[in-house]
């Protein structure tokens, strides 16, 4: 397959409107050219799937860097991916390798860990033989909400004779998703409403960097702080055996009245700034 065929099949180039888009297109063309040259040098055949995995892998690595990837670093990543292709690695392995390089790049440049990076989120589905088939890959915060929303409807239902629920775990989750759509879609007579989706975050008072979610496990201190902005907090005292011995009443950081006061204050401040000739945009408190 020629380089032009690969370009048409993979990236479907269109003239970008901005300089950054032109630069990305040029990098992809260089990648395709290098991939073809590498494969010709070993008298082999580079499939479209392999080239696709390399191009997408480099895009992924570039996106994980907080400071940008230099030309030298990109060349190194490209060589690493190509060497694995030539050694016989399938496209799926190239994708996994690229994700690993992206994780390392994010760690080295101060980016978020993969479990908390929303830029990696994806949700894809298609109709196949009358059924909806899909795949999703989401960060820890969304995953925690999915677990919380489905857990309410995922309890086993014994049979009328008292025997165990015959459904598999997969079927139970599918039925729970169906029930969630029925009660959360906003239609019907309103007798059944969706259960409130709660995200429980545990934060040790002496080690805030060890915060964790109920379902998804450890998270960074930054994510815990973001979730705490709109939360109800309870203090739990543990004994030496990690057994709870005391618990304070729940206290909400921003009550409904406080939220209204903040919004009014921000609108008043913004209006005053506008009258004074300030060019800043009006803002609202980021609490919900």
Can you describe what's shown?
- The chain folds into four domains: 3-111, no CATH class; 122-184, no CATH class; 201-250, no CATH class; 254-288, no CATH class.
- 48% of the residues lie in helices and 11% in strands.
- It has helices at residues 3-10, 19-41, 48-64, 71-86, 91-108, 140-151, 169-184, 221-228, 256-275, and strands at residues 122-128, 131-137, 201-202, 212-213, 217-218, 232-233, 236-238, 244-247, 251-252.
- The chain is mainly alpha-helical and 288 residues long.
- The strands form four sheets. The chain has a three-stranded antiparallel beta sheet, with helices on one face. It has a two-stranded antiparallel ribbon with strand order 1-2. It has a two-stranded antiparallel ribbon with strand order 6-9.
Order of helices and strands: HHHHHEEHHEEEHEEEEH
The residue ranges in which pLDDT falls below 50 over 5 or more consecutive positions are 1-11, 39-43, 274-288
Structural class by secondary-structure content: mainly alpha
The gross shape turns out to be: extended
Major β-sheet strand ordering: 3-4-5
Q: Roughly how many Å is the radius of gyration? A: 26 Å
Please report which band the strand proportion falls in: under 5%, 5-15%, 15-25%, 25-35%, 35-45% or over 45%. 5-15%
How many domains?
Answer: 4
Number of helices: 9
- Largest beta-sheet characterization: 3 strands, antiparallel
Please count the beta strands (DSSP E, at least 2 residues each). 9
- What is the CA-CA span between the terminal residues? 54 Å
Helix content: 40-55%
Average pLDDT over all residues: 76
């Amino acid at each position: 397959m020629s380089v032009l065929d690969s370009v048409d099949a993979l990236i479907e180039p269109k003239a970008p409107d901005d300089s950054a888009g032109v630069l990305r297109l040029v990098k992809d063309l260089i990648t395709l050219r290098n991939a073809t040259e590498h494969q010709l040098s070993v008298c082999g055949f580079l499939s479209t799937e392999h080239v696709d995995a390399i191009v997408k892998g480099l895009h992924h690595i570039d996106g994980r860097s907080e400071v940008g990837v230099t030309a030298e670093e990109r060349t190194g990543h490209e060589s690493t991916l190509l060497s694995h292709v030539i050694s016989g690695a399938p496209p799926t392995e190239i994708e996994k390798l690229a994700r690993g390089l992206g994780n390392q790049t994010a760690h080295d440049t101060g980016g978020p860990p993969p479990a908390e990076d929303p830029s990696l989120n994806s949700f894809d589905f298609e109709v196949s033989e009358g059924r909806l088939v899909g795949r999703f890959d989401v960060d820890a915060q969304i995953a925690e909400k999915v677990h919380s929303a489905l857990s309410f409807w995922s309890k086993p239902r014994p049979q009328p004779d008292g025997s165990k629920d015959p459904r598999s775990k997969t079927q139970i989750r599918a039925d729970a998703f169906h029930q969630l759509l029925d009660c959360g879609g906003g239609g019907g007579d309103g007798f059944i409403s969706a259960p409130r989706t709660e995200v429980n975050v545990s934060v040790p008072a002496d080690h805030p960097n060890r915060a964790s979610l109920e379902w998804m496990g450890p998270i960074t201190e930054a994510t815990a702080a973001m979730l705490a902005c709109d939360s109800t907090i309870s203090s739990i005292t543990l004994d030496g055996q990690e057994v709870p011995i005391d618990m304070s009443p729940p206290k909400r950081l921003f009550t409904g009245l406080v939220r209204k006061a903040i919004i009014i204050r921000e609108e008043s401040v913004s209006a005053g700034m506008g009258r004074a000739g300030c060019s800043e945009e009006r803002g609202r408190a980021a609490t919900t």
